[in-house]
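Re: [ENG-882] Designed sequences occasionally contain unexpected residues at chain ends

Forwarding the minimal case from QA. Structure tokens:
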């Protein structure tokens, strides 16, 4: 995390308007890890980066990219000074609920997403077998 903090610090020093942080913590209906594990291993480090850049440039905005359902950590993200949460996948989190609960504390960035399960047709299987066959 030292490298990321140093890069963010230097970017704040040169005057960027926004820093983007990112992890994919959310699955389709919950976090991929227990919220307490996120708090133990990620929250403090993220808070340190946010605190560092805002001490250098108080008006800097910090955005965080994490796909999926992140309801459980949104209050934590607000607490540590996050400004923008990206993306809000509408199949995972309800934008109306987010606006009602956190709209005055956190900006959100929505994305239109299409979830497609991979399906292999017999034609695709034939192409793969041809590609993988010797000679």
């Amino acid at each position: 995390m030292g490298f990321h903090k140093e890069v963010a610090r230097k970017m704040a020093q040169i005057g960027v308007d926004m820093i983007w942080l990112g992890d994919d913590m959310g699955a389709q209906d919950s976090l991929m890890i227990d919220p307490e594990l996120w708090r133990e291993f990620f929250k403090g480090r993220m808070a340190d980066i946010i605190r560092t850049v805002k001490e250098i440039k108080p008006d800097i905005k910090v955005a965080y990219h994490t796909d999926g359902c992140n309801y459980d950590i949104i209050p934590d993200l607000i607490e540590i000074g996050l400004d923008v949460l990206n993306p809000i996948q509408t199949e995972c989190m309800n934008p109306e609920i987010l606006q009602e609960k956190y709209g005055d504390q956190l900006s959100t960035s929505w994305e239109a997403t299409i979830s497609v399960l991979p399906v292999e047709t017999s034609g695709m299987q034939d192409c793969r077998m041809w590609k993988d066959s010797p000679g």
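QA comment: On inspection the terminal residues look reasonable. DSSP finds five helices and four strands in the chain. Proposing we downgrade this to a documentation issue.
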